[in-house]
Amino acid sequence: MKTVSAFRVSRRSLMKSGAALAGAAALGGTFPNIVRAQGSGTLRVLLAGDPFYYAIEGLKDQFQQETGITLEIEAISTEALQARLTSSFISNEPDADVISVDQMWLGQYLESKWILPLNEFIKADSDTAIDDFIPEVLYSMNTWRGQVGTLPVASYGQMVLYRKDFVDEAGIKIPEDGSWTWSDYLDTVKALHGKSFGGTTMSGTVLAGQQPAPVVHMFTQLAASMGTRWFKSFPTGSAWDFTPTVDSPENREALKLFLELYKLSPAESVGYNWFDAGMRFAKGDIGMFYWWTPYAYLCRKDGYMTGKDSVVADKLGIVRLPKAPDHHQVVSLGGHSLGIAGNTGKREAAWQFVKWATSAKTQKAMALYDKYGYQFSDFARPSLYADPDLLKIYPYLPGQIGDIRAGNGKIVRPPCPVYTTLEGIYGLNLNKVLTGAMTPEACLSETSTFFETILKGNFLIPYQQASYDDTLEATKALMASLA
Amino acid sequence: MTVALSLAASPRRRRLPAALPWLLIAPSVLLLLALILFPLVFALKNSFYFWNLQMSPVPMGYIGADNYRMAFSASFFLGALRTTVLMTLVGTAVEFLLGLGIALLLLRNLRGMRLTRVLLIMPTTIAPIVVGFLFRYMYDPNGGLIPWLLQSAGIPLPAAGLLGSSSTALWAVLFADVWQWTPFFAIVLYAALLAVPEDVLEAARLDGASAFKLLTHIKLPLIRKTALIVVMLRFMQLFNTFDLVVVLTKGGPGASTRTLGYSLYQAGLVDFNIGLASAMTWLIVIVVNAIIGLFVFFAFRDLD
């Protein structure tokens, strides 16, 4: 049905196309890329169904007007996306031209040639403004072995969200600049827990305890901030060594703290996924929690893209994450990126879309898109964090960029081969700790043993392929070379 | 007219080659065999290879029975097998007994039974994934219908909710399945009971047989074939439970609701370990066929 309707020629679309063609022809050499993309017909875009999708879907007419390329956008869950894309590439049945690629799949997709490296596209196209990306984001989400495989369309860090009126009434001061420790955070949560506020007994915090991904996403932030690393030497180092290091004193300490936090959360949060945890906070009976930055705007609403304000909409405090003393702060970076499918026949049109969706102009338009309330502030470009129009709507942006600049997605959740298998084991055991079926010590010991078995079984210990010293500096140098 | 036609047709029928019926059904048989056998043979071959899509898009080498060893050495497989067998046995038994009870009630011409028959079929027409979402809301500890009903009846609930506690999550998942599939048993058994000859029942009643005796000595033996087949079908369906688990618990808390179907999905479509998933597929095929084989052997041996 979609395909049929996409090809239906109305008078308006005919006029639009005519105007776009005439404009492009008149401007000629000024916009060579736009002209090249003309006539590419319909571009199929397959995205993960996160908030950025709604904004892109809402703005797709702009892209069509600018390029004459019709968009067919589809959004599905991340798990379904991975399954569908893998099936498409394995069977060599082309599916979409532009795809959402999770940072954990990047190496696999690039090495299997399922997506095209973008280095040459970027180099040939100064409109990309590659130097206006936050290097920590590109490093964490988009580069693999010296190649840019994708560009970020929605970049997330993690921050602390709290209910201002409740915290104020409790007489607690929360530092705006991140000058606090995880033990201060725990003390604050303890101080808030069980207090009555507006006739409700409040929980100190809320966790996302569901296995495997949500609990791993939440715990690893705390663990990395407290000094935990997954492997002996990855992704930096001249020789990669995947010997697991999760069974360490700092990780045991982090897990005990995480368990303490669970005891100060609603008990049912053992089964909460990302959104459940966020929406529980939005219901108003939670003091504070730390989570992915999109929840800074998602929690202002009472449901997903409902457009209706939540009870905490105008009572939301957002501050930077606590640190651990004696440890360099590391913030988890995640989000969504766009790549060009290796089996597409519309490479140039696909690149036009990737460039358009990740450009400062479109990202700003996405942030100002107001169909469901303002529901996008996940920028990867520093210029947008200083934009006065955006700061008016999203006043927490200075704190957000502070945390993102302290980000290192490759440390918090390293994108090693077989990551999802490791995450499955880790998530299961972390969840068992929350249910009381396992002690923190047993969890980390068993997880480490399983990691080792899996990594050996997949020929990653010892690592016999060529290593790549994957540092932030290397990404900065790559960006400079492509600019 | 009929006689004339059959007389005219009979010499022609005799002239048909004996192999023609075989030739006519051969395409269907071959297609069916290909559709059943190809995936199984493909999975069998892959189960002896190291093929993890996270590592390489093509198989990386022959590794003998290592995938089978890995499936057995990983505690989740045996744990999932235990959970699945428990869920399947209890689920099938409960659904059968409740379904039989409802079918017997339907036989009585009570008021509203027509409407009940129509309504009964509805849960089975809903996709399991939708049933999962429905029950997720109904199990919500903060205002869900089921916790509210249980608490109103004075039944204590776990603090983490019915889906959040290892001791109740499996039964909560099973309850959703029972809600959906008991009507299936009821409708099929009701249809079978309608076929029980009334004169046999009447004769038994005249001999003074009680309602219980009528059920155990006449009705159940007469609907036995139907009952066995419907039990067998549901057993196989329940053994592959996946949708409800994904929506309601994702196998948790811990591994308390991790079924074989969910473990297979995790290995194949999340971890993309095609070799391991193929080995697990074959282990499941063997287990299910062994159980069904035993069931058929014992249940059908004295039936013609």
Automatic annotation (TrEMBL), chain A:
Entry's Gene Ontology cellular component terms: periplasmic space
Highest taxon above the source species: Bacteria
Coiled coil: none
Protein name (database record): Multiple sugar transport system substrate-binding protein
Pfam family, any one: SBP_bac_1
Sorted UniProt keywords: Periplasm, Signal, Sugar transport, Transport
PANTHER family hit by this protein: ARABINOSE-BINDING PROTEIN-RELATED (PTHR43649), DIACETYLCHITOBIOSE BINDING PROTEIN DASA (PTHR43649:SF12)
SUPFAM superfamilies, A to Z: Periplasmic binding protein-like II
Signal peptide extent: 1-22
Family: Belongs to the bacterial solute-binding protein 1 family.
Annotated source species: Prosthecomicrobium pneumaticum
Subcellular location: Periplasm
Phylogenetic placement of the source organism: Bacteria, Pseudomonadati, Pseudomonadota, Alphaproteobacteria, Hyphomicrobiales
From TrEMBL, chain B:
Main location: membrane
Domain ABC transmembrane type-1, chain residue ranges per copy: 81-293
Membrane topology: Multi-pass membrane protein
InterPro entries in the cross-refs: MetI-like, MetI-like_sf
GO process annotations (BP): transmembrane transport
Pfam families given in the database record: BPD_transp_1
Compartments where found: Cell membrane
Cellular component GO terms held in the UniProt record: plasma membrane
Keywords recorded for this protein, A-Z: Cell membrane, Membrane, Sugar transport, Transmembrane, Transmembrane helix, Transport
Membrane spanning residue stretches: 20-44, 85-107, 119-139, 227-248, 279-300
Keyword Disulfide bond assigned: no
Annotated family: Belongs to the binding-protein-dependent transport system permease family.
PANTHER family recorded: BLR7065 PROTEIN (PTHR43005), SPERMIDINE_PUTRESCINE TRANSPORT SYSTEM PERMEASE PROTEIN (PTHR43005:SF1)
Stated name of the protein: Multiple sugar transport system permease protein
Protein source organism: Prosthecomicrobium pneumaticum
